[in-house]
Amino acid sequence: MQIYLPIAEVSVNVFLLLGLGGIIGFLSGVFGVGGGFLMTPLLIFIGIPPPVAVATQANNVIASSVSGCFSQWSRGNVDFKMGLILLVGGFAGSTIGVALFSLLQSLGQIDLVINLSYVVLLGTVGTLMLIEGARALVMRRRKVTAGKLHTHNWLHGLPLKTRFRQSRLYISALLPFTIGFGVGVLSAIMGVGGAFVLVPLMIYLLGMPTAIVVGTSLFQIIFVSINVTFLHAIQNQTVDVVLALLLTVGGVIGAQYGSRAGAKLPGEALRLLLGILILAVAVRLSLELIVPPEDIYSLGTPS
Amino acid sequence: MKALRSLLLCGLIAAGLVFPARSASLVADLSNHLVAITSGFVGVDVLLFGTVDEPGDIVVVVRGPERAQPVLRKSNVAGLWINTARMTFESAPAFYFIASNRPLEEIAEPSVLSANQFGVAHLQLGLPPGRAGGRAAQEWREALIRNKQRQGLYVREPAGISILGQRLFRTSVHLPSNVPPGLYRAETYVLQDGQVVAAQTTPLSISKLGMEADLFSFAHEQPAAYGAIAVLAALMAGWLAHLLFRRN
């Protein structure tokens, strides 16, 4: 059954979209990530124009983060003070990101920048996760003694030091602001929540307790995605609500089965698998940039 | 385009003056004057049919609205394929279809084909003069046509027209699912001895209808309200999902 998407202006099979939402929802349930980094490339791959894919996926991220954040909040795993500072940075970053998106679109370079951002980011994160996952597997066998919990470096010398009670941290407010800003820009350009960047940064750079990281990052992601969706709708008119609805329905159902499956798998193996998956997407996308195109000419958006 | 059309009209009048005896009377119509793009739209075939009172060759052209169409060219920069050049054609039809009862080259001289824009090779696309000349201009032109053909929006080979008893003719125009909305023109020409002796234009409107049209215009006319609703719908969906999860 085909459905005509009003904003994307293409006809797509309804079950393909529901299935795509379901599979990504399942994976996000298994791995505990949003899955936007997989969804946006797949949408582009099935023929959704890249600007519509990015903006619509941002809309989809809202739905998946809200349901996740509610359950984290009910367990008291959200550091609102930290979340708020991340959010201020995120708002600034995503606002600039959407403006940058419009500019790149008018220059005809948006497809390149989306693709390149994915390749660089997924390549880096995927490689790090593989190394980390492999090391964790080895460590479990060797039983290495744990290192120092907390090390001091130049980051602790930054001004505007603030106490974050829930995270048990006393660090500069500039740190979460900058992280929030960077992830906000990514969110606007790539249509991802950015958890796969945000979570490692919060754990390794800020030194937040892992239990609080997920809820706090979801809190930030909800509001940044709202900002991204709203600004894309206003400036680029690229949010397709019909597409978003179909993806969300598939995603909700998929995530339910995914989280059950994820609970049965060991953590290290899971991280290793996710790393491989992320790298595979990065390789697939980089091929598009490296392999000579079938036709070096293409059509821009008519006016 | 207006200038071009009046030029065409002058040509027709001139042809009439030179050959006053030659004027065929032509009646043509479409099976459908309004194509609605609704949620189930997968493309449609529109029938163009008509009658002519004298034997002759029939050519049917269907053109979409003219728009400025940018074409991008990639080149390899440090190992990556990147768009590095851009050319905007000022008035490329969004859609182009042509059908004739026998090959166009047999019907008329290249000069006549060119004057009437019969065939993709003779389309006037409004390439800005001075931006590209000679070989380069030809390459950009071919690139535009090739890409449009790949999208199914420009006809690859002229379609056929069946003629019954030298008077009745019909042809089928395929509009694919990605056909851009707008006001189209279906032009029917009668040619005798390689000259246009009669022509008729029938309008064809292609527009989004129903929920799709409403959503599209809502998104473009009130983007802030549309964005707010999109956000609210997503929040609601997330909340509902949370309730579902908690129950289980």
In order across it, which strands form the biggest sheet of chain A? 1-2
Tally of domains of chain B: 2
Please give the CATH class of the largest domain in chain B.
Mainly Beta
Helix coverage percent of chain A:
over 70%
The average pLDDT of chain B is 85
Radius of gyration of chain A: 19 Å
Largest sheet of chain B: 6 strands, mixed
**SSE pattern of chain B, N- to C-terminal:** HEEEEEEEHHHEEEEEHH
CATH topology of the largest domain in chain B: Immunoglobulin-like
- Tally of distinct domains of chain A: 1
**Alpha-carbon distance between the two ends of chain A:** 31 Å
- Shape category of chain B: flat
Low-confidence stretches of chain B: 9-21
Tell me, briefly, the overall form of chain A: globular
Q: How large is the radius of gyration of chain B? A: 23 Å
Topology, number of strands of chain A: 5
What count of helical segments of chain B does DSSP give? 6
Strand % of chain B is: 35-45%
- In terms of quaternary structure, the protein is heterodimer
Stretches of chain A where pLDDT falls below 50 for ≥5 residues? 144-149
What is the distance, rounded to the nearest whole angstrom, between the alpha carbons of the first and last residues of chain B?
A: 65 Å
Description:
The complex is a heterodimer of chains A (303) and B (248). With 303 residues, chain A is mainly alpha-helical. Chain A has one domain (2-144, 153-290). In chain A, 72% of the residues lie in helices and 6% in strands. Chain A contains ten helices and five strands; from the N terminus they run E-E-H-H-H-H-H-E-E-H-H-H-H-H-E. In chain A, the strands form two sheets. Chain A has a two-stranded antiparallel sheet with strand order 1-2. In chain A, strands 3-4 form a two-stranded antiparallel ribbon. With 248 residues, chain B is α+β, with helices and mostly antiparallel strands. Chain B has two domains: 2-209, Immunoglobulin-like (Sandwich), CATH 2.60.40; 210-248. In chain B, 32% of the residues lie in helices and 38% in strands. Chain B contains six helices and twelve strands. In chain B, the strands form three sheets. In chain B, strands 2-12-11-4-7-8 form a six-stranded mixed beta sheet. Chain B has a four-stranded antiparallel beta sheet with strand order 1-3-10-9, with no helix packed on it. Chain B has a two-stranded antiparallel ribbon with strand order 5-6. In chain B, helix 5 (211-221) packs across helix 6. Chain B is flat, with a radius of gyration of 23 Å. Residues 9-21 of chain B have low confidence and may be disordered. Classes of the chains: A mainly alpha (303), B alpha+beta (248). Chains A and B meet through strand 1, helix 3, helix 5, helix 8 and helix 9 of A and strand 5, strand 6, helix 4, helix 5 and helix 6 of B. Strand 5 of chain A pairs antiparallel with strand 5 (66-77) of chain B, so a sheet runs across the interface.
